[in-house]
Amino acid sequence: STPWTETAYALLLALSGYPGTIFTWNKRTGLQVSQDLPFLHPSETSVLNRLSKLGSDYMRFTEFIEQHTGHVHQQEHHMNQQNQTVLHGIYLRAFCTGLDSMLQPYRQALLDLEREFLGDPHLTISHVNYKLDQFQLLFPSVMMVVETIKSQKIHGCQILETVYKHSCGGLPPVRMALEKILAVCHGVMYKQLAAWMLHGLLLDQNEEFFVKQGPSAGGAAANQEEEEEDLGLGGLSGKQLRELQDLRLIEEENMLAPSLQQFSLRTEMLPSYIPIRVAEKILFVGESVQMFENHTHGPSRAGSILKHQEDTFATELHKLKQQPLFSLVDFENLIDRIRSTVAEHLWTLMVEESDLLEQLKIIKDFYLLGRGELYQVFIDLAQHMLKTPPTAVTEHDVNVAFQQAAHKVLLDDDNLLPLLHLTIDYQGKDCKEATGPRDGATPPQDTSPREVPPTGWAALGLTYKVQWPLHILFTPAVLEKYNVVFRYLLSVRRVQSQLQHCWALQMQRKHLKSTQMDAVKWRLRNHMAFLIDNLQYYLQVDVLESQFSQLLQQINSTRDFESIRLAHDHFLSNLLAQSFILLKPVGSLLTCYTLLLKLPFVFLDLMNSSLPRFSTA
């Protein structure tokens, strides 16, 4: 054999990942032709070194594939618990599978060259260079992807984004190869999507998917900074503006009931070619299916949330998986069809079977003081027990008073009243209830010691035990916001009642001689009554009735649950905004008036103590 023949076979071995004496391997520089070989011309050495770069890339590819594939998943998982910097995950293994399939044409080209050399030992280096020239652009570009994944510790769906960005270049061989790798990686995503959207299963042990269990990871530090920052928008602070704009109240706090696990988007894992609106639809469908899968009601009530179309949707997802290129149009159309099926079924279950409109009327009657006569009687019954700081028995006493008030106004619904419960948030209560809150109640936000409320009215709250499946609309976070409005409206109603009581006392004394001080007090009462009466009318008519009518109209005009949730969140946000609870200047003004509104109680004490003296006179 000639030196060139030996060199040719050594070259084929080196290009296959087996270096020797002619082609040596160095971890830093890769494959290189040995120096000072007498039978090689310098120009031949240059061409062979150029070919050796292909062998170097091929060896690094195979090393990367062997390192991240195989039956070592449990070992890798154990290593990752100790060191999160180790690359791992099913998307990485899918990438390695696609990378290995991309190398198959290269391996086939080496086999073809070997056959040609066996048939003609005198083939030249130029022939080898010509046969492998198609890989000279491909391998360095793909190697950039591999090095990016290794250096930046790219994980999970972020691999999809990395491969996609590198596939957007102008070199057709590189684009086609990376698109094939991306198609393999998409296979993993489609499997996770099928499990999540069709069965409510989040198969994501390594936190690679763009849906996660738990609340959204918003920056707590940033939120704290925004909380008291005055943005100059009509006195709105950053936190208040965020509350007005946050139309998905279920993501505010991790306060969900055990029957409704909270899920959110892991946006850093979402590829840029999948819009956030599509990801939110995927999140909604999976949450809804997961809720139904975990629910224990009989099939006659719940049925199939996908209307028994799971097999059809699974087939369509499989068809998308088989497509060589990802089509956002086809992908979003399928997601929309699944979402529409789920949303319509939820609408039917909520509005028709669970009588959502009746539940909203209950919320309006009790949280928004729609049953004004009930709370008028309750205020009279509970005034003596709530005007002092609360104690351990105050909660029991006010619930007894609430039941008595309900009976006095002929509200004897045995099915409704047990679902309502007044709460008193007094100091030390959290310690006693550390084992768990009452069903439907909002868990305490912190365990730090708090000041004793000055009166029982300041600590008063209302809980409502929401029945399945309405708990996905009336979450604890939503009910807590209703409680904010409830306390505010009750305070206005209570002060209005006391001012009216003062007027009744004034009428009892009108035949008696009054002093100049009495005239000042009655003028003040008239001014305060004017303010409170107009505020009460504005809240009940211009805000509550108007917004509630709009909410009912929107519910009756759609068959989509997400539209209902959006309309309800708008309704609650508008209540908070238009009742002046969130606006700082008006809120500060009302705080001052709240201090002034304590004057009627002073008037009452004065009247009650002085009335007998005036009568005897």
How would you describe this structure to a colleague?
The chain has 617 residues and is mostly helical. The protein folds into 3 domains: 3-71 and 85-154, no CATH class; 190-354, no CATH class; 356-429 and 451-610, Up-down Bundle (Four Helix Bundle (Hemerythrin (Met), subunit A)), CATH 1.20.120.1900. Helix content is 63%, strand content 5%. It has helices spanning 3-15, 42-68, 73-82, 90-102, 104-119, 125-131, 134-152, 158-166, 172-199, 220-227, 238-245, 276-294, 299-302, 310-322, 328-353, 356-366, 372-386, 394-408, 429-432, 476-509, 516-556, 561-578, 584-596, 599-616, and strands spanning 23-26, 30-33, 211-213, 230-233, 236-237, 263-265, 420-424, 460-464. Strands 1-2 form a two-stranded antiparallel sheet. The protein has a two-stranded antiparallel sheet with strand order 3-6. The protein has a two-stranded antiparallel sheet with strand order 4-5. Helix 7 (134-152) crosses helix 9 (172-199) and helix 14 packs antiparallel against helix 15 (328-353). It is elongated, with a radius of gyration of 36 Å. The termini are far apart. Mean pLDDT is 75; it is low at 71-84, 219-238, 240-260, 296-303, 430-449 and 609-617. It is found in: Cytoplasm, Cytoskeleton, Microtubule organizing center, Centrosome. Pfam families: GCP_C_terminal (PF04130), GCP_N_terminal (PF17681).
